[in-house]
Sequence to fold (494 residues):
Amino acid sequence: MITTKELNEERRFLNEVTLPALMQFIRIPSKSRFCDPDWERNGQLMRALREGAQWGEKIFPEGIFEILSLPGKTPALFFDIPAKGRGGHPAFFYGHFDKQPEATGWSEGLSPFEPVVRDRKLYGRGGADDGYSFYTALSAVRLLRDRTGRSPRITGLIETDEESGSRDLPDYLKAVAPRIGSPAVLCILDLGVRTWERLWTTRSLRGIAQVTVKISVLRHGVHSGSASGTVPSSFRILRRLFDRIEDAETGEILLPECHGVIPEDVRRELESETQSVDFPWVGHTRPMTETPAQQLLASTWKPALSVVAQEGLPPLSAGSAQLRPYTTLSLSMRLAPTADAPKALDAMIRALSTDVPYGAEVEISRASYSPGFYAGKTPEWLERVWSAASERLFGHKPGVFFEGGTIGILEHFRKAFPDSAFLMTGMLGPNSNAHGPDESLDLDYWEKLTRALSDVLAALPEENDGKEVHEKGLRHASHRALARRGMGEFCHAL
Fold:
């Protein structure tokens, strides 16, 4: 049991050492490359990594903090802090330092790149999404060391391309995986919470298959009075094609490739849900399903089709009695976490392009997919310590979060570390407003999450000695002198 003195010391460290560093990170306009095409020349992504590495060196001078920079790719930060007083497999932490653009509509006194603490919330772009990840990981180790004098080896990778799709992450993960070995747990700190009243873990995320379909029936528009009834409507043709994919009455997806097997433990968890998720409904609009359990199942483990963009439909102000020559729709199909995403995309394309009514011309473009993810069963030791931490810090058992969105990079972590357990959690909760105005980090929850992660590190299995693997990581540094100093900038040829 932690003493009052120890608790006060932990709070002092978090508020006087970690929080100022996180506030300095918010001041850096490290916008993701899709939002800042001149990111390399502007140097803000590199600046964020350098300042993070320098802070890490101060906290753990014995650690390695290396800025990785592959040609033409956004940089990343690899860190490796040796164990103290114990062995065992390391823990691995993931986060990102790139940010969404500013957005408009910030409240008075708040702005994206000037941190403000108000009512125990830290406002500013990138604090909750996802700058806290690195600073929290190191702080969790520091709290554990100060409390017990011991800590396991921890490693981690902070990328700068997450908001632009993490296209560079696989290369960096490939470069550092041999240096890391086999982590006991992968702490992915970029997920969400449903409430601020307990700890949460994310168990699964849906995949996605996306395609743009254009149906053309004429070379140019014609008068609807003379042509309608003879020339088929491009919109109606699309409606008929959709009937191959989706039941118009229920919304049920008809393509078996988009579905997946729901594990029994997941089904039991879903069926126990009693709280509905609120949305900004208009009028008497109601959910497609009746019970909270059905709603959760439908939004996290069942596929669903959405039309997210269109071309070919003029605005009402420009409408006329013209029969349009084409209709283009952008389709987004959320997939079951265990669905085969490439096969699902192929099935969609076949349904949209085979035996098209009236022989209309169909053009498929912008086809892409990203796999879903199911973390699997949580190891008993991790489940035990996480539950105990939640009850100690919040007075409630932890919650399980099944995410309806998609983070395709998770499968890369599974491939790199097939024997590692996943702990997917984060700070994106109610009113955190990531990507929008008034993005904020709940400081009370952040403090408790940091302490919970410290408990996880304390409970890592110690059956193997992690010294050999850490020394292997040191040997891989480009220069021993830089490795000993704790920071180096280098380029790997993969």
Observations:
- The chain has 15 helices and 19 strands.
- Confidence is low (pLDDT under 50) at residues 464-494.
- The longest strand covers residues 207-216.
